[in-house]
Specification:
The complex is a heterotrimer of chains A (308), B (287) and C (259). Chain B is mostly helical. Chain B is built from eleven helices and two strands; from the N terminus they run H-H-H-H-E-E-H-H-H-H-H-H-H. A two-stranded antiparallel ribbon of chain B has the order 1-2. Chain C is globular and about 60 Å long. The chains are: A mainly alpha (308), B mainly alpha (287), C alpha/beta (259).
Chain lengths: 308, 287, 259
Amino acid sequence: MNIEQLILATATFGSLFAVMTVCLNIQYARGGMINFGTVAYFAVGAYTYAIFTHEPPSGLDRYVFGFDFPWYIGFLAAGIASLLFAVLTGWPTLRLRGEYLALTTFAFAEVLHSVLLNERRLGNGSVGLSNVERIDFTQFGLADKYGYALAAVLLLIATIVLCRRILASPYGRAVDAIRDDEVAAQSVGKDVQRMRFEVFLISALPIGFAGALYAMITTLVNPMLFTAEVTFFVWIALVLGGERTIKGAVLGTIALVAFEELIRNFHFESVRGAEIASSIEHMMTGVIFILVLRLQPFEKIKTWRAAQ
Amino acid sequence: MSILIAQYLVAGVVTGCFLIVATLGFSLTRQVEGFLNIAHAELLGISAFILWSLVNLAGWYFIPSAVIAVGITAVLGLFIGRVVYDPIRKFGPAVVLISSVGVAYVLGGGLDAVVGTGVRTMDIPLATSYRFFGVRITDYQMAVIAMAAVTGLSLALFMSKTTTGLTIRAMSDNPELAASRGIDVVKTSRATWLLSSGLAGLGGVSLALIATLSTDIAFQQILTIIAVAILAGLGSLYSVLIAGQVVGIAMDMSVLWLPAGYRPLIAFALVIVVLLVRPQGLSGKST
Amino acid sequence: MTPSNSIIEVRGLRKQFGGLKAVGGDTGVSFEVPRGKITGLIGPNGAGKSTTFNLISGVLKPTAGSVFYNGEPLSNKKTSEITAAGLSRTFQTPRSFPTLTVLENVVVGASSPGEWLRTALVGGWRSNEQDTLEKAQLALNTVGLAERANDEVTNLSGGELRMLEVARQLVRDPDVLLLDEPTAGVDPGLQNRLRKLLLDLHEKGTTLVVVEHNLHFLLEIAHQIVVLQNGELLAAGTPQDIKANPKVVSAYLGDEHAA
């Protein structure tokens, strides 16, 4: 097992996915909204980046759009696209709560997945787009793998700074109040609908950027990369770290990614062996998830600390 | 052309019948236990594969295998309900919903580990086709329709004539009132888990008859089941019968206008439309 | 009373839930709330007090008739608009924000420019924040919760939560404060504090509307009392008028005639 590779992969993908977990933390723990469609914004970011930076179609290519822009244009477009998609799919948040919101967001993500899979004109359907434009890190004097790890970490830090800034202000206090008691918050003039919608939108932006970065790292976009598995992965990471804090969101994600990378790096004698390991890892993740939800260790730690 | 439409209609009815059986248990859990059990679909997969192993690997006859599969699934569902869900009910339906994802992971992972990936077909005689007015239908498809009809009827009778059924209905209508009237909440809850998981088991049997099996088939079904449940709305299991047919027929007839790959999208789009336009669904009752 | 002296006007107000005529019967209820005075709203259970209260605060829309606030109809306004216009209310069962401290619970009552996303991102709300914090502490002093500022809301008693709610609305400098059964479940000591608080608010010019079950409390502080029964207006007038009104005495005061 290559330790350096393991650490690098954990740092890169851990930070990347932690961006999503942090945003989910904002939406759920602070905003009180359950978003089961997180992967959709990730996918929109990734595909937008790929489409914006790809060469125009030629020969046997089935896709229609390819703008061949430089990477920073694509990156920016990814965030904006994710934001727009959030505008499109976020207005149910104005009226729906709890499980109904969860289902609507889940359904939107599946609709997107279905469209990406079937519409060859958009992203080449099930084949996807490959040879996605990457950043040339050599101009910074870095090898690619270090460059991307750094980029991911920087994106995570930027996301955390953004979230902290918003939440430490009266805005954050109002959001907390709305989450605690919507009716009471309304009685002191808080515009519940506007604030919930805004929280939903602003937290979609970093997810779009993360998607673009992901596309660069994997060098391809394909519908199979963007399934509900990603959404549930982020949710499990969120719960593992205790949904309440940003720090917990980051730690939970890194732990989960490290766990997966560890399993992935084991060498198995057979394909079947690897399959079984992956399945067992799946099961264990589920068990830990349920246990954390059941035993609420973070609440207990908090109460224990307060009693000291 | 009209024969083609009729053909798709028949396919839709069959799908609808499968969906009815698959969703009845899901709606029951929602109404009585109060949350959406994402892991319900995994029970379908488990039942289907138990059936497959007994028939293909052990060489048993179909019907006793089906009975065993349904039975095991029912007990498994009961176990999960008591051990996993009951202790966290107090945290609210949102938390239980999220944790049912964890349960789905465990069940799905377990199924993957034991069975392995890849597509399987049931080792049963090839389907025999019959023709009615130029429309083709196989005996298995008719079996699925029959299963749905029998299940629906039996459930209706059970819920209106037996004591357990009536107490389950009382509990779903008004849990506090039911408890104060001396209904044994724990026993009724157990009965509900057995019933809804058993129904999932039956759904798995239907699935095995009309579809090719793979271990991820369960997860693919959950959104369709959710669509039927949402369309049906709370408060009535009868509306599931209608909603199941609507979704099944809509999905299968959509291939007349849309590429086949979009078939599942009908279900997703339906979820969105119903939740935004009329969240209470057909039956019209809200939480 | 000339219209400009009434900050709230209720005209022909009716509210029906399905077949149930909760307020206003067939003809509707009409009365006025004079500016700067304390008006009490009373009636036995089922009289329609809560429904009327919710209609006046804009939470419920009337089936017929209207509620005018400062001459403008209330029915087409959002709750946030209504509170921004100076109409505040408390709740029968006190509501609070458990994840915020006591002081924060009050601070959040005020509308801050920092509550707009752009300002939160760009900054510039801090100066306003300082002012609000002082106002909040002052409000806590007024209701007698000064020392509890950094306490957790979960440690407060029911009566203290009630006071906290009032403080939260006070920080908004409301023109009208609607109180929903403020003395419910409150011990006599706290009731005295409450009475003094309401009189202080009245001194400052705030119009008060107090919905109560406790007529004794109202008789002591109200300038006008509106009596409801079965959703209809039974009587309206000064405490003297009400005490002397035979209909009120027989319908309601009969067993309460310890005043």
